[in-house]
Protein backbone atom coordinates (compact mmCIF):
# COMPACT_ATOMS: atom_id res chain seq x y z
CA UNK A 1 0.00 0.00 0.00
CA UNK A 2 1.40 3.43 -0.86
CA UNK A 3 2.43 5.71 1.97
CA UNK A 4 0.18 8.56 0.82
CA UNK A 5 -2.42 9.36 -1.77
CA UNK A 6 -1.03 8.34 -5.20
CA UNK A 7 -0.15 11.19 -7.49
CA UNK A 8 0.58 10.14 -11.06
CA UNK A 9 -1.30 12.38 -13.51
CA UNK A 10 -1.98 11.25 -17.04
CA UNK A 11 -0.73 13.29 -19.96
CA UNK A 12 -4.06 13.24 -21.73
CA UNK A 13 -7.73 12.76 -20.92
CA UNK A 14 -9.50 9.86 -22.58
CA UNK A 15 -13.19 9.83 -23.47
CA UNK A 16 -15.68 7.40 -22.05
CA UNK A 17 -17.96 5.48 -24.44
CA UNK A 18 -20.72 8.01 -23.68
CA UNK A 19 -18.55 10.89 -24.73
CA UNK A 20 -17.86 12.37 -21.28
CA UNK A 21 -14.18 12.80 -20.47
CA UNK A 22 -12.74 10.40 -17.91
CA UNK A 23 -11.18 11.78 -14.78
CA UNK A 24 -7.41 11.72 -14.92
CA UNK A 25 -5.57 10.31 -11.89
CA UNK A 26 -4.57 13.85 -10.95
CA UNK A 27 -8.18 15.05 -11.12
CA UNK A 28 -9.38 12.06 -9.11
CA UNK A 29 -6.75 12.72 -6.45
CA UNK A 30 -7.69 16.38 -6.24
CA UNK A 31 -11.37 15.48 -5.93
CA UNK A 32 -10.69 13.02 -3.10
CA UNK A 33 -8.53 15.49 -1.21
CA UNK A 34 -11.14 18.23 -1.62
CA UNK A 35 -13.91 15.98 -0.30
CA UNK A 36 -11.91 14.63 2.65
CA UNK A 37 -10.64 18.11 3.49
CA UNK A 38 -14.22 19.36 3.59
CA UNK A 39 -15.39 16.69 6.04
CA UNK A 40 -16.32 18.14 9.42
CA UNK A 41 -15.62 14.94 11.32
CA UNK A 42 -12.46 12.92 10.72
CA UNK A 43 -10.45 10.45 12.77
CA UNK A 44 -7.11 11.88 11.71
CA UNK A 45 -5.57 15.00 10.24
CA UNK A 46 -3.16 14.26 7.40
CA UNK A 47 -0.56 16.50 5.81
CA UNK A 48 -1.97 16.02 2.32
CA UNK A 49 -5.23 17.67 3.40
CA UNK A 50 -3.67 21.11 3.64
CA UNK A 51 -3.00 23.80 1.07
CA UNK A 52 0.39 25.35 0.48
CA UNK A 53 -0.74 28.53 2.21
CA UNK A 54 -1.90 26.61 5.28
CA UNK A 55 1.33 24.68 5.62
CA UNK A 56 3.47 27.78 5.17
CA UNK A 57 1.38 29.70 7.68
CA UNK A 58 1.74 26.89 10.21
CA UNK A 59 5.51 26.88 9.75
CA UNK A 60 5.65 30.59 10.50
CA UNK A 61 3.26 30.44 13.44
CA UNK A 62 4.39 27.24 15.12
CA UNK A 63 8.00 27.48 13.97
CA UNK A 64 8.55 30.52 16.15
CA UNK A 65 7.87 28.34 19.20
CA UNK A 66 10.70 25.92 18.40
CA UNK A 67 13.39 27.97 16.67
CA UNK A 68 14.49 31.58 16.29
CA UNK A 69 13.09 32.61 12.91
CA UNK A 70 15.39 35.64 12.82
CA UNK A 71 18.34 33.28 12.42
CA UNK A 72 19.79 32.76 8.96
CA UNK A 73 18.57 29.80 6.92
CA UNK A 74 20.53 26.57 6.97
CA UNK A 75 23.36 25.97 4.53
CA UNK A 76 24.19 22.32 3.81
CA UNK A 77 22.83 21.08 7.11
CA UNK A 78 23.59 23.65 9.79
CA UNK A 79 21.16 25.89 11.69
CA UNK A 80 17.68 24.42 12.13
CA UNK A 81 18.84 21.10 10.67
CA UNK A 82 21.55 20.75 13.30
CA UNK A 83 19.03 21.58 16.01
CA UNK A 84 16.66 18.87 14.76
CA UNK A 85 19.53 16.36 14.77
CA UNK A 86 20.47 17.34 18.31
CA UNK A 87 16.90 17.13 19.60
CA UNK A 88 16.25 13.78 17.94
CA UNK A 89 19.45 12.24 19.27
CA UNK A 90 18.46 13.47 22.72
CA UNK A 91 14.94 12.00 22.49
CA UNK A 92 16.28 8.63 21.30
CA UNK A 93 19.21 8.55 23.72
CA UNK A 94 22.00 8.37 21.12
CA UNK A 95 25.17 10.48 21.03
CA UNK A 96 24.72 11.62 17.42
CA UNK A 97 22.23 11.87 14.56
CA UNK A 98 22.13 12.94 10.91
CA UNK A 99 19.20 14.35 8.94
CA UNK A 100 18.34 12.78 5.57
CA UNK A 101 15.85 13.92 2.94
CA UNK A 102 14.23 10.45 2.90
CA UNK A 103 14.09 7.35 5.03
CA UNK A 104 14.92 5.23 2.00
CA UNK A 105 18.30 6.96 1.78
CA UNK A 106 18.88 6.95 5.53
CA UNK A 107 18.43 3.21 5.86
CA UNK A 108 20.50 2.34 2.81
CA UNK A 109 23.33 4.40 4.23
CA UNK A 110 22.99 2.88 7.70
CA UNK A 111 22.97 -0.68 6.44
CA UNK A 112 25.84 -0.29 4.00
CA UNK A 113 27.87 1.24 6.83
CA UNK A 114 27.08 -1.76 9.01
CA UNK A 115 27.89 -4.12 6.14
CA UNK A 116 31.35 -2.58 5.84
CA UNK A 117 31.91 -2.81 9.57
CA UNK A 118 30.71 -6.39 9.98
CA UNK A 119 32.15 -7.62 6.68
CA UNK A 120 28.74 -9.11 5.84
CA UNK A 121 26.36 -7.43 3.33
CA UNK A 122 23.43 -9.70 4.26
CA UNK A 123 20.53 -8.07 6.09
CA UNK A 124 17.91 -10.18 7.87
CA UNK A 125 14.50 -8.54 7.82
CA UNK A 126 10.83 -9.32 7.31
CA UNK A 127 9.53 -9.78 3.73
CA UNK A 128 6.83 -7.20 4.54
CA UNK A 129 9.40 -4.64 5.72
CA UNK A 130 9.35 -1.31 3.92
CA UNK A 131 12.57 -1.82 1.91
CA UNK A 132 11.25 -5.12 0.54
CA UNK A 133 7.81 -3.81 -0.46
CA UNK A 134 8.01 -0.09 -1.17
CA UNK A 135 11.53 0.77 -2.36
CA UNK A 136 11.97 -0.99 -5.73
CA UNK A 137 14.75 -3.29 -4.52
CA UNK A 138 16.91 -0.32 -3.55
CA UNK A 139 19.00 -2.37 -1.14
CA UNK A 140 20.29 -4.68 -3.85
CA UNK A 141 20.12 -2.33 -6.83
CA UNK A 142 21.82 0.68 -5.23
CA UNK A 143 23.65 -0.45 -2.12
CA UNK A 144 24.77 -3.97 -3.00
CA UNK A 145 23.04 -5.48 0.00
CA UNK A 146 21.40 -8.90 0.14
CA UNK A 147 18.30 -9.63 2.19
CA UNK A 148 17.11 -12.82 3.90
CA UNK A 149 13.92 -13.54 5.84
CA UNK A 150 14.00 -15.38 9.20
CA UNK A 151 10.19 -15.66 9.01
CA UNK A 152 7.33 -14.92 6.65
CA UNK A 153 4.65 -15.00 9.35
CA UNK A 154 2.73 -11.68 9.64
CA UNK A 155 4.78 -10.63 12.69
CA UNK A 156 8.35 -9.87 13.55
CA UNK A 157 10.71 -12.86 13.94
CA UNK A 158 11.08 -14.63 17.26
CA UNK A 159 14.36 -15.18 19.07
CA UNK A 160 14.19 -18.86 18.14
CA UNK A 161 13.80 -18.02 14.46
CA UNK A 162 16.74 -15.65 14.56
CA UNK A 163 18.97 -18.12 16.42
CA UNK A 164 17.99 -21.03 14.21
CA UNK A 165 18.16 -19.27 10.85
CA UNK A 166 20.36 -21.25 8.49
CA UNK A 167 22.28 -18.31 6.96
CA UNK A 168 24.71 -15.87 8.49
CA UNK A 169 23.78 -12.19 8.41
CA UNK A 170 25.59 -9.07 9.49
CA UNK A 171 22.58 -6.95 10.47
CA UNK A 172 19.13 -7.72 11.82
CA UNK A 173 16.67 -5.00 10.80
CA UNK A 174 13.40 -4.76 12.74
CA UNK A 175 10.55 -2.51 11.61
CA UNK A 176 8.75 -1.18 14.70
CA UNK A 177 5.82 -1.46 14.20
CA UNK A 178 5.60 -3.78 11.17
CA UNK A 179 3.27 -1.61 9.12
CA UNK A 180 2.13 -3.91 6.31
CA UNK A 181 1.25 -6.69 8.77
CA UNK A 182 -1.12 -4.32 10.58
CA UNK A 183 1.20 -2.04 12.59
CA UNK A 184 2.03 -5.01 14.82
CA UNK A 185 4.60 -5.18 17.60
CA UNK A 186 6.08 -7.97 19.71
CA UNK A 187 5.90 -7.84 23.48
CA UNK A 188 8.75 -6.10 25.28
CA UNK A 189 10.22 -9.39 26.44
CA UNK A 190 10.00 -10.80 22.90
CA UNK A 191 11.78 -7.74 21.48
CA UNK A 192 14.57 -7.96 24.06
CA UNK A 193 15.00 -11.66 23.32
CA UNK A 194 15.20 -11.08 19.55
CA UNK A 195 17.87 -8.41 20.00
CA UNK A 196 19.85 -10.69 22.30
CA UNK A 197 19.55 -13.52 19.78
CA UNK A 198 20.99 -11.31 17.02
CA UNK A 199 23.90 -10.30 19.24
CA UNK A 200 24.53 -13.94 20.06
CA UNK A 201 25.01 -14.43 16.32
CA UNK A 202 27.46 -11.51 16.22
CA UNK A 203 25.02 -9.36 14.22
CA UNK A 204 24.26 -5.70 14.80
CA UNK A 205 20.65 -4.52 15.21
CA UNK A 206 19.06 -1.67 13.29
CA UNK A 207 15.53 -0.42 13.97
CA UNK A 208 13.38 0.86 11.13
CA UNK A 209 11.73 3.24 13.55
CA UNK A 210 9.72 5.32 11.10
CA UNK A 211 6.86 4.95 13.58
CA UNK A 212 8.83 4.04 16.71
CA UNK A 213 7.50 7.21 18.36
CA UNK A 214 4.14 5.54 19.07
CA UNK A 215 5.45 2.20 20.41
CA UNK A 216 6.08 3.30 23.99
CA UNK A 217 2.52 2.66 25.19
CA UNK A 218 2.54 -0.94 23.95
CA UNK A 219 5.99 -1.66 25.36
CA UNK A 220 5.41 0.23 28.60
CA UNK A 221 8.88 1.72 28.27
CA UNK A 222 10.20 5.25 27.55
CA UNK A 223 11.39 6.01 24.03
CA UNK A 224 15.04 6.03 25.04
CA UNK A 225 14.79 2.52 26.45
CA UNK A 226 13.06 1.19 23.33
CA UNK A 227 15.52 2.82 20.93
CA UNK A 228 18.46 1.91 23.15
CA UNK A 229 18.07 -1.78 22.34
CA UNK A 230 19.42 -1.12 18.83
CA UNK A 231 22.81 -0.10 17.48
CA UNK A 232 21.15 2.43 15.17
CA UNK A 233 17.64 3.79 14.62
CA UNK A 234 15.98 5.62 11.75
CA UNK A 235 12.94 7.81 12.45
CA UNK A 236 10.54 9.61 10.12
CA UNK A 237 9.01 13.04 10.61
CA UNK A 238 6.07 12.98 8.21
CA UNK A 239 4.38 9.67 9.01
CA UNK A 240 3.49 10.31 12.64
CA UNK A 241 4.91 13.68 13.55
CA UNK A 242 2.98 15.73 10.99
CA UNK A 243 6.12 16.99 9.24
CA UNK A 244 6.74 17.81 5.61
CA UNK A 245 9.41 15.22 4.87
CA UNK A 246 12.74 13.98 6.09
CA UNK A 247 14.27 11.41 8.39
CA UNK A 248 16.99 11.14 11.00
CA UNK A 249 19.47 8.33 11.52
CA UNK A 250 20.74 8.06 15.10
CA UNK A 251 23.72 6.07 16.35
CA UNK A 252 27.27 6.34 17.63
CA UNK A 253 29.48 9.32 16.80
CA UNK A 254 31.63 7.24 14.45
CA UNK A 255 28.67 5.66 12.64
CA UNK A 256 27.00 9.02 12.06
CA UNK A 257 30.25 10.58 10.84
CA UNK A 258 30.51 7.79 8.27
CA UNK A 259 26.81 8.15 7.42
CA UNK A 260 27.29 11.85 6.67
CA UNK A 261 29.94 10.96 4.10
CA UNK A 262 27.63 8.48 2.39
CA UNK A 263 24.74 10.94 2.58
CA UNK A 264 26.80 13.31 0.46
CA UNK A 265 27.64 10.54 -2.02
CA UNK A 266 23.96 9.56 -2.30
CA UNK A 267 22.96 13.13 -3.13
CA UNK A 268 21.42 13.91 0.23
CA UNK A 269 23.58 16.94 1.05
CA UNK A 270 20.85 19.45 0.22
CA UNK A 271 21.60 23.17 0.15
CA UNK A 272 18.67 24.24 2.33
CA UNK A 273 16.20 22.11 4.27
CA UNK A 274 14.78 24.51 6.84
CA UNK A 275 11.06 23.87 6.06
CA UNK A 276 11.42 20.14 6.74
CA UNK A 277 13.64 20.78 9.77
CA UNK A 278 11.21 23.30 11.27
CA UNK A 279 8.29 20.95 10.70
CA UNK A 280 10.24 18.18 12.44
CA UNK A 281 10.97 20.37 15.44
CA UNK A 282 7.30 21.32 15.62
CA UNK A 283 6.36 17.63 15.58
CA UNK A 284 8.70 16.91 18.48
CA UNK A 285 7.12 19.76 20.45
CA UNK A 286 3.45 19.23 19.60
CA UNK A 287 2.81 15.66 18.46
CA UNK A 288 5.25 13.51 20.43
CA UNK A 289 3.67 14.26 23.85
CA UNK A 290 0.18 13.50 22.50
CA UNK A 291 0.90 10.06 21.03
CA UNK A 292 -0.04 8.04 24.14
CA UNK A 293 -3.53 9.60 24.06
CA UNK A 294 -3.87 8.72 20.36
CA UNK A 295 -2.87 5.12 21.02
CA UNK A 296 -5.32 4.83 23.91
CA UNK A 297 -8.20 6.23 21.88
CA UNK A 298 -7.39 4.04 18.87
CA UNK A 299 -8.33 1.08 21.07
CA UNK A 300 -11.73 2.70 21.76
CA UNK A 301 -12.25 3.39 18.04
CA UNK A 302 -11.23 -0.10 16.96
CA UNK A 303 -13.53 -1.76 19.50
CA UNK A 304 -16.45 0.44 18.46
CA UNK A 305 -15.84 -0.35 14.79
CA UNK A 306 -15.97 -4.05 15.54
CA UNK A 307 -19.26 -3.58 17.39
CA UNK A 308 -20.61 -1.41 14.58
CA UNK A 309 -19.90 -3.94 11.84
CA UNK A 310 -21.44 -6.73 13.94
CA UNK A 311 -24.56 -4.67 14.64
CA UNK A 312 -24.85 -3.79 10.95
CA UNK A 313 -24.87 -7.47 10.03
CA UNK A 314 -21.72 -7.48 7.91
CA UNK A 315 -21.15 -11.22 7.25
CA UNK A 316 -17.37 -11.06 7.68
CA UNK A 317 -14.96 -8.37 8.75
CA UNK A 318 -11.71 -8.02 10.61
CA UNK A 319 -10.25 -5.28 12.76
CA UNK A 320 -6.55 -6.04 13.14
CA UNK A 321 -4.80 -6.22 15.52
CA UNK A 322 -7.20 -6.50 18.46
CA UNK A 323 -6.59 -4.27 20.28
CA UNK A 324 -4.34 -2.00 18.16
CA UNK A 325 -0.69 -1.88 19.17
CA UNK A 326 -0.32 1.76 18.09
CA UNK A 327 -2.69 4.53 16.96
CA UNK A 328 -3.01 2.82 13.57
CA UNK A 329 -4.67 -0.45 12.62
CA UNK A 330 -6.22 -2.31 9.68
CA UNK A 331 -9.84 -2.97 8.75
CA UNK A 332 -10.72 -5.78 6.32
CA UNK A 333 -14.08 -6.09 4.52
CA UNK A 334 -15.45 -8.57 1.90
CA UNK A 335 -16.00 -6.02 -0.88
CA UNK A 336 -14.04 -4.81 -3.88
CA UNK A 337 -11.82 -1.84 -3.09
CA UNK A 338 -13.57 0.30 -5.71
CA UNK A 339 -16.93 -0.20 -3.97
CA UNK A 340 -15.49 0.71 -0.58
CA UNK A 341 -13.64 3.73 -1.93
CA UNK A 342 -16.84 5.03 -3.51
CA UNK A 343 -18.73 4.60 -0.23
CA UNK A 344 -15.97 6.33 1.76
CA UNK A 345 -16.01 9.29 -0.59
CA UNK A 346 -19.80 9.47 -0.62
CA UNK A 347 -20.04 9.39 3.17
CA UNK A 348 -17.54 12.24 3.50
CA UNK A 349 -19.31 14.25 0.81
CA UNK A 350 -22.89 13.73 1.94
CA UNK A 351 -22.62 13.66 5.71
CA UNK A 352 -19.27 15.31 6.38
CA UNK A 353 -17.97 12.18 8.13
CA UNK A 354 -14.58 10.86 7.03
CA UNK A 355 -14.49 7.40 8.56
CA UNK A 356 -12.25 5.69 6.00
CA UNK A 357 -10.06 7.06 3.23
CA UNK A 358 -8.38 4.66 0.79
CA UNK A 359 -9.10 0.96 0.41
CA UNK A 360 -6.77 -1.45 -1.35
CA UNK A 361 -7.35 -4.88 -2.89
CA UNK A 362 -6.23 -7.88 -0.86
CA UNK A 363 -2.47 -8.08 -1.62
CA UNK A 364 -2.54 -11.87 -1.33
CA UNK A 365 -5.14 -14.58 -1.05
CA UNK A 366 -8.69 -14.62 -2.44
CA UNK A 367 -10.13 -11.76 -4.47
CA UNK A 368 -13.08 -9.77 -3.16
CA UNK A 369 -11.39 -8.65 0.04
CA UNK A 370 -10.09 -5.15 0.65
CA UNK A 371 -8.09 -3.52 3.44
CA UNK A 372 -7.72 0.01 4.74
CA UNK A 373 -5.53 1.61 7.37
CA UNK A 374 -7.17 3.65 10.12
CA UNK A 375 -5.24 6.36 11.93
CA UNK A 376 -6.42 8.13 15.07
CA UNK A 377 -4.84 11.42 16.03
CA UNK A 378 -6.00 14.79 17.42
CA UNK A 379 -9.38 15.11 15.61
CA UNK A 380 -10.26 11.52 16.45
CA UNK A 381 -10.09 12.20 20.20
CA UNK A 382 -13.46 13.95 19.90
CA UNK A 383 -15.16 10.77 18.63
CA UNK A 384 -17.08 8.73 21.20
CA UNK A 385 -17.66 5.01 20.77
CA UNK A 386 -21.26 5.83 19.83
CA UNK A 387 -20.03 8.27 17.15
CA UNK A 388 -17.92 5.49 15.66
CA UNK A 389 -20.75 2.95 15.71
CA UNK A 390 -23.11 5.43 14.05
CA UNK A 391 -20.56 6.23 11.35
CA UNK A 392 -19.99 2.53 10.67
CA UNK A 393 -23.75 1.92 10.37
CA UNK A 394 -24.03 4.76 7.87
CA UNK A 395 -21.06 3.46 5.91
CA UNK A 396 -22.56 -0.04 5.68
CA UNK A 397 -25.87 1.42 4.45
CA UNK A 398 -23.99 3.08 1.63
CA UNK A 399 -22.71 -0.34 0.53
CA UNK A 400 -26.20 -1.76 -0.02
From TrEMBL:
The keyword Protein biosynthesis does not apply. Keywords: Pyridoxal phosphate. The keyword 4Fe-4S does not apply. Pfam families: Beta_elim_lyase. Its cofactor is pyridoxal 5'-phosphate. Residues 66-306 form the Aromatic amino acid beta-eliminating lyase/threonine aldolase domain. Residues 1-25 are annotated as: Disordered. InterPro entries: ArAA_b-elim_lyase/Thr_aldolase (IPR001597), PyrdxlP-dep_Trfase (IPR015424), PyrdxlP-dep_Trfase_major (IPR015421), PyrdxlP-dep_Trfase_small (IPR015422). SUPFAM superfamilies: PLP-dependent transferases. Residues 1-15 have a biased composition (Polar residues). Belongs to the threonine aldolase family. This is Threonine aldolase. It comes from Streptomyces violascens.
Amino acid sequence: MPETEPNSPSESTADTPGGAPEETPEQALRHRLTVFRGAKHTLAEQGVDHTLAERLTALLTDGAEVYDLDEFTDIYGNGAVTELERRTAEELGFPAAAFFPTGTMAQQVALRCWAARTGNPTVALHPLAHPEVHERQAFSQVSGLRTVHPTDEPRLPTAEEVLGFEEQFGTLMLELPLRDAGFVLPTWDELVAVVEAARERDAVVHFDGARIWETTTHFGRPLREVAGLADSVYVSFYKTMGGLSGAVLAGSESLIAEARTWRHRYGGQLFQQFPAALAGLIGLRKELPELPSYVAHAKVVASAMKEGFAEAGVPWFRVHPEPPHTHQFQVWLPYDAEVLNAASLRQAQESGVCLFRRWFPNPSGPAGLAVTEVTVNAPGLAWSAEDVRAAVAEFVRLLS
